[in-house]
Amino acid sequence: MSSGRSWTGIFHNKRKNGELFWESAHISPIKDFNGEITHYIAVKEDITEKVKNEEQLTRYREHLEEMVEERTAQLNTQNEFLRSLIDTIPNPIFVKDTEGNYTDVNPAFEKFYGKKKEYLIGKKLDVVLDGEAMEIALETDAQLMKKRGIVNYETYFTSGEGKKMAVLVYKASFGAQDNKPEGIVGIFFDISLRKELEEKTIQALNKEKELNEMKTNFISMASHEFRTPLTTILASADLVEMYYNKWSEEKVINHVKKIQDSVNYMTSLLDDVLTLSRADRGKIKFSPSKQNLKELCSHLMNEIQYQTLPGHDLMLDYKLKDEILNVDNKLLTQILNNLLSNAVKFSPEGGKILLEVTQKDDKIQFIVKDEGLGIDKSDLKNIFEPFFRGKNVTEIHGSGLGLNIVRNAVELHGGDISIESELDKGTKI
Fold first, then answer.
1. pLDDT given for residue 221 in this prediction
2. What is the pLDDT of residue 154?
3. Strand, coil or helix: what is 384?
4. Is 408 exposed, middle or buried (0-12, 13-18, 19+ CB in 10 A)?
């Protein structure tokens, strides 16, 4: 002020009663015509309340800053905890925004798909999913973006190594205002082992059911198929016993023949059941050796022709250049004997039965054709199952085991079997 300039400031002052107060002052020098300072003029204001308010405001601000710092520290701790938790969870976790772009993934997600987080951020799900898995993901994402909620579903994901896995997916939408979704967080679990165990359980239950059905069918078949030959044996034996001395030798021999035929039929039936049992236990071995295939087929045709009605016309069409081939004699005889016997059994007198042996690519093809009863289309899907018999042949004797035995023997040769049939027109196997 002594230099002629004004001064403005705030200071503590004392009242007459000794009370301190805050004062704001503006002091300006007054000069005469010569520019000399003659006196000073001061404008003062008691700003005690204002200072108190400012001090209180400062305290509030400092307290608020402390609270913000404390809350920020808490949030940082929580975020670090959540980050550590997410990163250490062994299951893949992902976060997506409202546009479906990945905004975060954990290391397990990176490992599963073999892609780095930096590559995935900002990308859509087509970088890791395709096909049905992507369709389900898009559909459930759209559902969650309409309204906040949680969904879960099972599907199949393919890992970065190309391994297809069954997975259980959980997804939830999240947001802060008005229940409006702001993104999606999800996690998925590998349930391949569970699925495998479920499948094995289902297979075991089906196998048990199948075995129970086979047992029931066997009892039904045995009671039906054994009753007739046993009745024949008992009746013929009783008649021979009663009239042995009164009948002619020819008549006695005829009844003895009936007994023999019935015994042979039951023996054949038991052989089929034992063969089925051995096949189920994997006890039938494939033992190929060099055989004259043409002679084997001719012998079988002659044997069946001898046993059957003279009215059936059995023909062999052997088209292979070679006659000596590697086959399992026992299994092949079983195959052809069953197929040709069926063709005879279900064909009317005078029907033609053809066995054609030819080459298809690098395999031998056997074709058995008949002009018999045929098989209903609805029965074809079960025709190779044990004890199964078509609806139109229930009055004809049979165990329902033959075609199942044939299929097993064909598969032991590394072959396959198919069937075409039409009711009243015949069958081709």
1. 64
2. 95
3. coil
4. buried
pLDDT tens digits, one per residue of 287-308 = 889 999 999 999 988 888 877 7
Opening angle at CA 324, ends 323 and 327, nearest 5 = 115
Distance between CA atoms of residues 255 and 410, nearest Å = 39
Residues 410, 293, single domain; the answer is: yes
Q: What secondary structure letter does DSSP report for 182? A: -
CB neighbours of 259 closer than 8 A, spacing ≥ 6? 232, 233, 236, 237
Question: Is 281 part of any domain?
Answer: yes
Asked if residue 155 and residue 96 are part of one domain, the reply reads yes
Pair (400, 422) in one structural domain: yes
Residue with tokens 């008005």: 178
Alpha helices, DSSP H only, in 90-191?
107-113, 117-120, 131-146
Confidence of residue 227 (pLDDT cuts 50, 70, 90): confident
Instruction: Give me the phi and psi of 324, to 5 degrees please.
Output: -90, 115
The pTM of this model reads: 0.48
Q: Are residues 214 and 356 in the same domain?
A: yes
